[in-house]
C-alpha cells in the first residue's frame, strides 16, 4: 500500500503554470544568448508573427456551427443558445472571428487559452469572456479536480472551478497544462532575433566592417580620448558612410571582422525561418518564403497545411466545446463543427467536374452543389439521380 501511495501521490509543489512546467522539464524562457524570450518578444520576429497570423486568421475565417444530430440527420442547431455564441459573437465586444483568432494566438504563444463562462437560464453558457493566460494558474485540488487561481486587474485573486473556466490547451505532459511552444523553441527564436539585430547594427554602421587602429607609437590618454571621440563622430552611422579616414601619428586601419557572406549571415536567417515554420507547422510559402515552392507542389502544401496544421487546432477546439460548454445532457445530441471545406476548394473547373460526378452517381443533389457555391436552390433540384445500369431492376425505373 505504501508503494502504491508513493507511485500515485503528487508532489507537494504543484506545477500550476507553463513557466513552472518549463522549469521542471529543464526548459526556461531564458536563452543561451541571454535574451529572455516571451510571447511578446517572439512576435517581434517576422517569421513568428507570420506563422501566428496565418494560423489564427485561417481558423478565424472558418465558420464554427453548433450541429444537432438526430435519426440519421445532422442539422444546424439554430435554436440553441450556443449556436449564436460560436457563430456570431461570444460576447458583447468581440465577433466570432476575433475570438477564434485570439484563441489560436494564445495557443501558439502560451500553449493555453482561458475564458470565463457566463451562464444564463438552465445553466447554459451565454457568454465567453477571454482571460490573459498569464493571470491564470491551473492546478489540481485534493480530489483531482482542476481549479484555477485567477489574478484580477485590481490585484485580488480567486479560485474558480471548471464550471466557470473554459480551458483549451495544446499538447500536455501532465494532462492539465499545455506546453508552451515559445518556451521550448526559445533558442531558435532567440537566434533569429539575434541575427536580425546583427543585420540592423551592420547597416546602422553603414555596412562597414569592424577593425582596429594600430600604431607603433604610444598614445597619451588625452590623445586616445580625442581619437576615440573623433572616430565615433566622423565614421559612425549611415550618415558618415564612405567618408575618408584622416589618420595621424602613424595610425593604420586594419579590418578584422568577417563579411556577411563569410559568416553565412543570409544562410543562417534562411535556416531560422524554415526552423520556426517547422515549429508551427506552417508551409514556408505562407510566410513569403517561395524558395522551394513550385507550381506542382504548392497546391499539395496548401492541403497539408489544412490537414496537419489547422485540423489539430480545430478538433481540439471542437472537443473542448463539447466537453466544456455543453451540459452533460446535451453532449450526446449537439456538437461543434468548423467548416474547413472552403480552404480545400479547387479552381472553378475542378469544382464543377467534382459536382458533376457527385450528381451523376447520386452522391449530391443539384441544390446541394448550388449551396456549396452560395447559390439559391432551384425548383426540382433536390432529386438524387441513380444510373440505370446501377439499379437492381432497370425496367422498374423505366415504368416510374
Automatic annotation (TrEMBL):
NCBIfam families: portal_HK97 (TIGR01537)
InterPro entries: Phage/GTA_portal, Portal_HK97
Name of a matching Pfam family: Phage_portal
Protein name: Phage portal protein, HK97 family
Top-level lineage group: Bacteria
Span list, region Disordered: 378-400
Record organism: Halomonas shengliensis
Amino acid at each position: 500500500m505504501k508503494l502504491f501511495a508513493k507511485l500515485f501521490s503528487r508532489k507537494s509543489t504543484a506545477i500550476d503554470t507553463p513557466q513552472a512546467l518549463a522549469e521542471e522539464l529543464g526548459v526556461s524562457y531564458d536563452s543561451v544568448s541571454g535574451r529572455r524570450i516571451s510571447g511578446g518578444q517572439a512576435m517581434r520576429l517576422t517569421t513568428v508573427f507570420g506563422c501566428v497570423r496565418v494560423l489564427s486568421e485561417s481558423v478565424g475565417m472558418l465558420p464554427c456551427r453548433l450541429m444537432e444530430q438526430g435519426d440519421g440527420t445532422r442539422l444546424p442547431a439554430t435554436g440553441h443558445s450556443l449556436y449564436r455564441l460560436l457563430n456570431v459573437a461570444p460576447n458583447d465586444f468581440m465577433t466570432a472571428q476575433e475570438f477564434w483568432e485570439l484563441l489560436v494566438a494564445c495557443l501558439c504563444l502560451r500553449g493555453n487559452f482561458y475564458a470565463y463562462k457566463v451562464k444564463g437560464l438552465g445553466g447554459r453558457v451565454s457568454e465567453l469572456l477571454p482571460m490573459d493566460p498569464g493571470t491564470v494558474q491551473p492546478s489540481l485540488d485534493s480530489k483531482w479536480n482542476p481549479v484555477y487561481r485567477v489574478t484580477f486587474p485590481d490585484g485580488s485573486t480567486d479560485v474558480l472551478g471548471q464550471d466557470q473556466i473554459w480551458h483549451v490547451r495544446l499538447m500536455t505532459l501532465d494532462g492539465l497544462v499545455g506546453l508552451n511552444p515559445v518556451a521550448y523553441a526559445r533558442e531558435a527564436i532567440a537566434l533569429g532575433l539575434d541575427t536580425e539585430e546583427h543585420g540592423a547594427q551592420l547597416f546602422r554602421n553603414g555596412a562597414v566592417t569592424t577593425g582596429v587602429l594600430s600604431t607603433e607609437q604610444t598614445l597619451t590618454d588625452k590623445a586616445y580620448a580625442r581619437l576615440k571621440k573623433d572616430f565615433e563622430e566622423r565614421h559612425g552611422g549611415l550618415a558618415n558612410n564612405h567618408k575618408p579616414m584622416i589618420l595621424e601619428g602613424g595610425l593604420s586601419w586594419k579590418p578584422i571582422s568577417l563579411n556577411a557572406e563569410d559568416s553565412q549571415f543570409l544562410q543562417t536567417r534562411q535556416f531560422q525561418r524554415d526552423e520556426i515554420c517547422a515549429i508551427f507547422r506552417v508551409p514556408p510559402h505562407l510566410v513569403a518564403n517561395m524558395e522551394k515552392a513550385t507550381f506542382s507542389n504548392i497546391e499539395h502544401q496548401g492541403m497539408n497545411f489544412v490537414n496537419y496544421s489547422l485540423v489539430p487546432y480545430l478538433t481540439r477546439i471542437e472537443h473542448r466545446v463539447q466537453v466544456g460548454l455543453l451540459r452533460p445532457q446535451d453532449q450526446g445530441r449537439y456538437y461543434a463543427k468548423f467548416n474547413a471545406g472552403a480552404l480545400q476548394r479547387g479552381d472553378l473547373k475542378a469544382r464543377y467536374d467534382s459536382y458533376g460526378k457527385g450528381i451523376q452517381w447520386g452522391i449530391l443533389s443539384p441544390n446541394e452543389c448550388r449551396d456549396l457555391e452560395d447559390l439559391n436552390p432551384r425548383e426540382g433540384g433536390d432529386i438524387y439521380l441513380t444510373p440505370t445500369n446501377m439499379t437492381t431492376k432497370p425496367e422498374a425505373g423505366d415504368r416510374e
